[in-house]
Write a structure and sequence with these properties.
A 5-stranded mixed beta sheet has the order 1-2-3-4-5, with helices on both faces. Strands 8-9-10-14-16 form a 5-stranded mixed beta sheet, sandwiched between helices. The chain is about 45% helix and about 20% strand. The protein contains 13 helices and 16 strands. The radius of gyration is 28 Å and the shape is elongated. Helix 6 links the parallel strand 4 and strand 5. With about 425 residues, the protein is α/β, with parallel strands linked by helices. The chain folds into 2 domains: about 130 residues, Trna Endonuclease, Chain: A, domain 1 (3-Layer(aba) Sandwich), CATH 3.40.1350; about 210 residues, no CATH class.
Length: about 425
């Protein structure tokens, strides 16, 4: 049986406008008894309504572009979850992104003023049905939440709305999401990058050096050092990934250590993961476009136009500096990882994407997945556990002690990097 097409609000408005135009023409004809005047009036009224419609449509289009909703529509499910994490952080919530698989029906857990809420994120091209409502409602007890919420870039089916109403589940559809975004960054396109910058590059960042233990994430007492490197905006998303690492790992961020072989005399390392099987040294990049290069080439290109120093070679220099610091652990394994944003596409040696390699090129949203897979591979292939819990704590302490936080020395290092970039 064929389904009848439901009349939309837009259809009803159109019919009302058409009726008003016709009635206006008839009224003019009755008053003037002139068909010519009635036709002219009809044309003028139609022109006025079309002009108003064009203005409204233009304003709506500007509003949509400012919200960045078109970019959100291109995201995959995990990117949308990470975007919402940044969005709710900017709204003043404490947030936690759950595991990508086995999340028990909640993609995020947010909390504000003592009220804990589970969130189901749905980045869909079609309308969201009752499954999302059922899943998030079922997750409330597991996460000990008081409220449940489903957020989508699309709309909800009538069945989903009815079920949500009867179960007290709140719904945020496309229009509501746009309003939330515009409320944070009025007059700006609130992309993931801009939300991260608004929240985490000066408003609520307690420190640039953190370490993850089996108990909790501890923030170091070192003063915050304002980073001026290009990769800064992308590094907040990396922090989200690092929070999802195995619990037996430590991580530290934004370390600057002495390196006599560097032109500046220092190495500034974005992130270090200390695992029982070795150290992951991470360099983050915030480029946009095609990344092309071979493992042995000194320079790589961005969009075949701009050159950048081979990031693997750059990271190799960082690793050499760490080896010099950790001479008491001569057999430690170092895994080099370079992380790019999803705005890039790779034209590189395919081996650099294989988990077997100790040099990896990854996207920022898959960093924790690659690290976890690498650790699991080392474990199942019979690799000996190199570091005990005491070893990892000693390494973490040594690196913290070696970290240079003096703003003057950091400024000298940045100036040296800029000079090298200009000369090249």
């Amino acid at each position: 049986m064929a389904k009848r097409r439901r009349r939309s609000k837009k259809d009803s408005v159109g019919e009302a406008v058409a009726g008003l135009v016709i009635m206006s023409a008839i009224a003019v004809y009755l008053l003037t008894k002139s068909a010519v005047v009635a036709v002219i009036t009809l044309v003028i009224v139609i022109g006025i309504f079309k002009s108003i419609r064009l203005i409204i449509d233009k304003q709506r289009e500007v509003r949509l572009r400012k919200s960045g909703i078109y970019d959100i529509d291109k995201m995959d499910g995990r990117q949308f979850e990470l975007y919402l994490d940044l969005l709710y952080k900017a709204l003043g919530y404490k947030t936690e992104v759950t595991r990508f698989t086995g999340d028990f029906g909640a993609d995020l857990v947010i909390e504000k003023k003592g009220v804990r809420t589970v969130v189901q994120a749905k980045c869909y091209a079609k309308n969201v049905g009752i499954d999302a409502v059922q899943q998030v409602q079922a997750s409330k007890a597991h996460y000990k939440a008081a409220q449940a919420l489903v957020v989508t870039n699309s709309k909800f089916t009538e069945a989903a709305k009815t079920l949500a109403h009867s179960n007290g589940v709140n719904l945020v559809d496309r229009e509501s999401l746009i309003e939330m975004i515009l409320a944070i960054n009025p007059g700006q396109k609130p992309s993931t990058k801009e939300v991260a910058a608004t929240k985490d590059l000066g408003l609520d960042q307690k420190s640039s050096l953190t370490v993850k233990t089996s108990e909790a994430v501890q923030v170091s007492k070192n003063p915050k050092i304002e980073s001026t490197r290009i990769g800064q905006l992308g590094e907040h998303k990396i922090n989200i990934q690092l929070d999802q690492l195995p619990k037996d790992c430590y991580y530290l961020s934004d370390l600057m250590v002495r390196n006599n072989k560097s032109r500046s005399g220092y190495s500034q390392i974005d992130h270090i993961i200390i695992s029982p099987y070795g150290l992951f040294v991470i360099e983050t990049k915030n480029y946009n476009g095609e990344i092309k290069g071979e493992r042995t080439e000194k320079s790589w290109t961005v969009n075949n136009r701009f050159k950048m120093y081979n990031p693997l070679m750059q990271n190799h220099g960082h690793i050499k500096a760490l080896e010099n610091l950790l001479k008491s652990y001569p057999s430690i394994l170092f895994i080099s990882i370079v992380s790019f944003t999803m705005r890039c596409r790779f034209a590189i040696d395919p081996e650099l994407r294989k988990i077997e390699s100790n040099e990896l090129i990854v996207y920022d949203v898959e960093l924790s997945e690659f690290i976890t897979r690498k650790i699991n591979r080392l474990r199942v292939t019979g690799s000996k556990q190199m570091l005990s819990e005491l070893d990892m704590k000693n390494i973490e302490r040594s690196l913290q002690e070696a970290n240079i936080t003096d703003p003057t020395l950091r400024a000298v290092h940045v100036a040296a990097l800029k000079k090298r970039s200009t000369n090249s």
